[in-house]
Amino acid sequence: MLIIVTYDVSTETAAGRKRLRRVAKACERVGQRVQKSVFECQVDAMEYEALERELLAEIKLDEDNLRFYRITEPIDMRIKQYGTFRSIDFNGPLVV
């Protein structure tokens, strides 16, 4: 499944800046950054639950914001993109 993860972590303190880095690193491990605090992730149900648990353990619910969007099929009918950035086709051929 394709999910979009967005977050807004309070960076007013040193602890908040550390949380922001940890949240970003967790998202980078499973997806691609499409904007500063927005990631596209191609995951199965188990990976989705693991990512959700990891991110919930990192953020502070009273200071931060975390959102998950599950994109339904067909993806090409749901997403339009413009400009120079092109997302990775997770289902396409892998070229190394």
TrEMBL record:
Residues given in the record as Mg(2+) binding sites: 8
GO terms, biological process: defense response to virus; maintenance of CRISPR repeat elements
Cofactor annotation: Mg(2+)
Top-level taxon: Bacteria
Example GO molecular function: RNA endonuclease activity
The keyword Ubl conjugation belongs to this UniProt entry's keyword annotation: no
Keyword Cytoplasm: no
Enzyme class: hydrolase
Keyword annotations from UniProtKB, A to Z: Antiviral defense, Endonuclease, Hydrolase, Magnesium, Metal-binding, Nuclease
Enzyme Commission number(s): 3.1.-.-
SUPFAM superfamilies given in the database record: TTP0101/SSO1404-like
Subunit structure: Homodimer, forms a heterotetramer with a Cas1 homodimer.
Similarity comment: family membership: Belongs to the CRISPR-associated endoribonuclease Cas2 protein family.
Purpose of the protein: CRISPR (clustered regularly interspaced short palindromic repeat), is an adaptive immune system that provides protection against mobile genetic elements (viruses, transposable elements and conjugative plasmids). CRISPR clusters contain sequences complementary to antecedent mobile elements and target invading nucleic acids. CRISPR clusters are transcribed and processed into CRISPR RNA (crRNA). Functions as a ssRNA-specific endoribonuclease. Involved in the integration of spacer DNA into the CRISPR cassette.
HAMAP family for the chain: Cas2
Protein name: CRISPR-associated endoribonuclease Cas2
Natural source organism: Thiomonas delicata
Name of the encoding gene: cas
